Amino acid sequence: MTEHFRPVSAVDGYLPIGDHGLIGDVRSAALVGRDGAVSWLCAPRFDSSPVFCALLDHERGGAFRVVAHGLQESRQHYHPDTGVLVTELRTGTGVLELTDALTLNEGVDLAERTRAGRGELLRRMRVTHGEVDVELAVQPRGEVSVQRSDDGWRLHSDDWPDVILHFAVSPPADGLNSRIRLAAGQRVYAQLSWADDAHRRRWPDPERRMASTIVDWQRWARCLTYDGPQQALVRRSAVTLKMLDHDAGGAIVAAPTSSLPEAIGGERNWDYRFSWVRDAAFSVYAMRRVGLASEANNFLHWVLDAVERKGEARVLYDLDGHAPPDERVDPHLRGYRHSSPVRWGNGAAEQTQHDVWGEILDCAHQRVAGGGAIDPALWSWLRELVGRAQRRWHQPDHGIWEVRTSGRLFTYSVAMCQVALDRAARMARRLDLPGDPDTWAADADRIREALLQEAWDSQRQTLVEHLAPDEEQRAAAGLDASLLALPLRRMISSTHPKMIATTAAVAERLDAGDGLLFRYLPEESPDGLSGDEGAFLLCSFWLVDNLAKQGRVDEAGQLYESLCARANPLGLLPEQIEPATGAFLGNFPQAFSHVGVISSALNLQRAARENHTEVTRR
Predict the structure, then answer these.
(1) Lesser CB count within 10 Å: N end or C end of the chain?
(2) Is CATH 1.50.10.10 what the domain over 224-610 is classified as, yes or no?
(3) Is the pTM here over 0.85, yes or no?
């Protein structure tokens, strides 16, 4: 359902994070605000230097603005099952309909690993009622060289060295900044391209490019098979994950943005334009079950190819499966609502995170479960990871939340070492692979028992964030919402008495109100950073999963509905929520949150069948 018109308001010069829509071409993505501005675009790839990033500095970051003078209110919606966005801008004299797309090559199959995107941002302006004074303003980031060409302008800057931009307007305009008056029925097209000229001219009709892009998205969406609770939001989540898919290799970025803050004014600002191995392990099963089999298989292959090719087990990789660039602070950008620093690159890539061994082995196991093979070279490397899990599971690491303190013996990391051994034993037996599956299985059982003993606080009746040798130390340990993920990794059943107790303890102690959960409390679980953060959406979806598996289907369904209601009118979710206001925090949109939407819907549907109940369908 299309949202109602709403006033457009900014704070400190910035729209709320949730007042943006995502467009993408499975190679890059852009954010379009309800004010008509493209305030974020990296080209030619997700992890390229941004051409526009007013989202991180509204004065210096650069934007592509379409200004409807006298703007009073606006609304946004997607063409159904597409990455094509419509923004309606209402003034006192008329309504401007702005349609934005990162266009696709005509007739492309989005499920295939091929170059789907044309390398073009296409903006169509059309007045549907009355007349509107419209201003176009293209102002990329940094010092820009501008040259006139036959049909527009060429732009280049050392601040975004990977591309040369070509800007054109039809009917032609006088420059990068122009003002026109449009009456009802009139339309103008603006094109910003980073493709070569021959590729651009091969298919010149802008209306045809827009229409074909819509058709190709909707053709792809026929693969979606879900029919259950929150069907519209689940479908939109699947489309969003597709827009975060990098078609050249199969990686899915955690988010298309960098440095959107986890607390306004805080330092918890990170670059998420890379792919985390654990995201694949969580995502693939859910994607496959809603019809995204090709995307799931491509993501699996990308992870395992990166591991085999590089001979290393990294926490995250760039889109080509290499180490991401070193983390650095941008001295020129002030950050969203002055939340600094702005960071490029991600230092977590160099951390010790033992869960990655289990994540990789779980990816391999999912490949095998889907009928895939494990070649000898890959198996040799996977066996090395199994050996590391055997030898080092009882050593500290930096954990799933990538703390920037000295390590601890995080419970989730220990659990994933158990997963590594368990999955290796299962694969070796199923495929008759070389190794010692009996020993691996026995060690997996030993790690599991150690975890259930040494992470259990009998006073509070809960598992805690890290293992400790005595009861006094466990009583002082904090709680961690990642404990809710242990049943999802099949380390322990959701109905195990200790897991039932832990679910209740986490829900109570990490409660942020209205079904939201904090990941942990920094005062109890030091992370080396100052300040606080918002509630982490994925953790609440994990709570839904545990409640559903414990037979509390009505309670789980109510919580799920409340979480889905937090999506913006376009069906997009951030990483975190500010509990007091409901405002979006963190990078946006967040792949993990949309995986949560899909996974919890599927788990609710299954639990309802098993308990002979019904889940509300909306």
Answers:
(1) N
(2) yes
(3) yes
